[in-house]
Amino acid sequence: MSICNQNLFGYANHYTQKELVKSQKCVIFTVGMGMFSRCSTTAAADGSKDSLNNTQPAQGTVVFAVDFRFSSAPVEENVILYSPANIALSCNLTSPSTDSATVNVTWKKDNETLRSSSVTFNETKHVWSTQYINQMGNYTCVFKRDQEVKATFHLQVPQIEGKEHHVVSYVGDSVVLVCKSIKYIPISWIWYMSNGSDQQLPVSVQWNKYTVDEKYANITKLKILKISEEDDRSYWCQAVFKLGESKGKVSLKVLTYMTPLKPFLAIAAEVIILVAIIFLYEMYSKKKQMHAGTLRQLMGCNLNVISVQRKSSTLSFINCWRFPKLS
Amino acid sequence: MPVVHPEPPDGGWGWMVVLAAFFQSALVFGVIRSFGVFFMEFVGYFGELAGRVSWITSIGIAVQQFASPVGSALSTQYGARPVVMAGGFLSGLGLLLASFATSLTHLYLSIGLLSGFGWALVFTPSVASVARYFKKRRTLATGLAFTGVGLSSFAFSPLFQLLVDTYAWRGALLVVAGMSFNLVVCGTLIRPLTLKEDLAGPGDPGASCLGKLSTLFGLPLLSHGPFMRFVLAVTLINTGYFIPYVHLVARARELGFDEYQAAFLMSVAAVADLCGRLLSGWLADCRAFRLGHILVAWTSLTGISLALVPLGRGYPLLMAISVCYGFFSGALTPVVFSILPEIVGIGRIFGSMGLLQMMESIGGLLGAPFSGWLRDMTGDYTASFLAAGAFLLAGSLVLVTLPNFSSCLEISHIGTLDLGSPVPPTGSGLCL
After folding, report:
1. Locate the Ig-like domain: which residues (chain A) (predicted)?
2. Does pTM surpass 0.80?
């Protein structure tokens, strides 16, 4: 399969690190048989999704370029690599032509300076690039004159998101913990659980306690049966990719039935108390009415009160008697 | 010996009954509308398809509507208070049993059947009791009672989500069951009221058991011309009424707005709905216009605003139309219930309300699927909303045929029934 040496250029806007996560739009594209994702606020060159099972590095080289000036803020770029590839990282510095002072350039990988043999420097355009990267890490190009500007490329495998919030379940019940990797399909998944002392033990699949459901390759579900208090711990789902692994965390919280029972009993008690109060108030006000009614009857009244026996079909009229007024 | 009131008291303990109806509509419809939170949990826990889980609320709503005549019949016989208390207990019990569920069938039976039946015993008697306690301010009281639905829809969704996050769905259902037991308190507040019209009794004592039963369920009403025309009108209204609840968000997403903008449209319509209910209640009780005219006006305006929805292409215009729809649809709701005693008389309010609920539910059940089918046939929602508007306008046309609509006489001249003749509207304005 011969593919021309395609150089795909991508350009990034400047944004500070805290905006990195929020404003990213990621584009998945392929060169030859490799697959990459580029996250930036402006879309990189167009590409198409390809099949995801490949083991050979791409024929072409992908160049990730950043343009900036001396006055720019530091630039951060996330590059997610799914499979081995030839990557070129390029930093283009534009300085005014009247400026003749020399610019000092260094490339660092995780704060260690790289050897100059893997770095190329083009004076006319101030382009520096590094090629054939097969390791994950943070690569920084630093331009220094009287000020310093830099751009950092974070090369990483796809990250797995666990669940931020606890998953809650009850003693004796069962629960399903889910981990997803939506865009990239891992080779396999491994589950770990915490041991209280920062260690992580692999979860051994036993038919009556733990089951792993892998119906789809990009979703893994760990089902825990017959939960007990000791299952209240953190679980990690590890996705294995060609270039590395990444983990997501899911925490399980185990409650007993007593926990929700308390608010329930409180509300039930409130219901009973209110019903009792309402009935008592009604009996009290009825007594007062009857009291006032008999009092009025004795003292002479103006009202015609017709009392009716509802169950029998005859109506019995009880008129209000008028007593002679006692002087 | 109970005291007989010649007229509904129009106040006093009536306001406590309104409070009871407010909480009752909050706890019945608020819970139903916020059940979507539990929906996701059930799908995840039981590993079932969304369609099968949706049956839980569908069965609950269907049972609540179709069993309404049972609630009415029992209230006619025994009074509203014991029926509502029993209904409250059953609905709480259903949710309590659901918290121990191990399968979807268990949930269908406990939430769908048991709680649904409890809700049926609660809703119609409560609303009918409000109508019995008020005459001059009936629409306002009914409107106030229904504001419970809107307010609880706001509050219960985030509350239920919080409960699920803290206690998982089992514990959350337990707490919601406790909240539903407050319906028993609502029932206790409904003091029995004896009106003059109740004295005639349900038919002559020599009637057969079946005859008595049919009277309890209000079956003689089926031959009552004006009532059946009213039922037809309300069924048509119901067919169009719920379509925006189901499809407005989808229409907004179809036009390209994002999820939050679309959801905000519904929130705005809900707020307008609340204002509409209150304003309509107050306006109707001013007695400046007849209830029949008011109902036709609100229904026609709702129909027109629904028909205008397809014209709303920009966000501000669509928002304005949603506000109009919310306001007018909220305005027509209390009038529908408070006009009923004028048609059938307050002595038969329980039975008529039960029958009305049961038959209008057919409209509600058919409306949304019909609208969805139209959308599938034509490709977008224009036809659906036009159809919804058309249903509402048809309903208002049927309402015009009701008696007392075009007559200029103050006193109703229709020889309707010996049991509780319709109360003629008085001309005094009570706009305080």
Report:
1. 57-152, 158-256
2. no
